[in-house]
User: Which sequence fits this backbone?
């Protein structure tokens, strides 16, 4: 059914696995659409009591926006592109069931934002999270808004302006 994610059931738990390990599970248009569809399907399925979202492979939950797609961005598609992000983030935010982000590596940029949208984040000492977009010359627009409530204003500003990634131990402490 899906090409860039996997949706599996274990007992009454749905597991959504981001499945582009060769690109560190970075989002691109088809993947964003699939993620939104999977969350929407889980929300209306009475057999699903909770959702876990994770990434395929050992090194990345997700690298965030696929920079190859961003480099080829066509301004005539801006409204559609923003709609895809709205649909994906909206599907997660509107869940009636608990959502757990199982962070099996890096959660960078918009992937960090997705983790923050989840009800619970679980990682390990080797995981890392942050907003490194600034290091590629891309401003983080939504990230600081999501981060401020959880991390505080000072930490949000520091992470947004430096692009520093937090390791799993620091994330756990926060």
Assistant:
């Amino acid at each position: 059914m899906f090409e860039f994610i996997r949706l599996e059931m274990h007992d009454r738990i749905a597991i959504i696995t981001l499945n582009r390990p060769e690109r560190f599970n970075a989002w691109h248009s088809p993947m964003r659409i699939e993620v939104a569809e999977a969350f929407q399907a889980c929300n209306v399925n009475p057999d699903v009591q909770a959702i876990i979202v994770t990434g395929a492979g050992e090194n990345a939950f997700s690298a965030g926006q696929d920079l190859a797609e961003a480099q080829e961005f066509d301004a005539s598609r801006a409204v559609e592109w923003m709609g895809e992000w709205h649909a994906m983030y909206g599907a997660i935010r509107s869940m009636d069931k608990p959502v757990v982000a199982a962070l099996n590596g890096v959660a960078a940029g918009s992937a960090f934002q997705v983790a923050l949208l989840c009800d619970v984040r679980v990682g390990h000492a080797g995981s890392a999270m942050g907003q490194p977009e600034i290091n590629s010359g891309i401003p983080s627009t939504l990230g600081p808004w999501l981060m401020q409530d959880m991390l505080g204003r000072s930490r949000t500003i520091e992470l947004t302006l430096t692009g520093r990634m937090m390791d799993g131990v620091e994330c756990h402490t926060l």
User: Anything to note?
Assistant: The first strand starts at residue 5 and ends at 10. The helical segments are 29-44, 67-71, 78-93, 110-117, 143-151, 153-162, 168-173. The mean pLDDT is 92. The two ends are 38 Å apart (CA to CA).
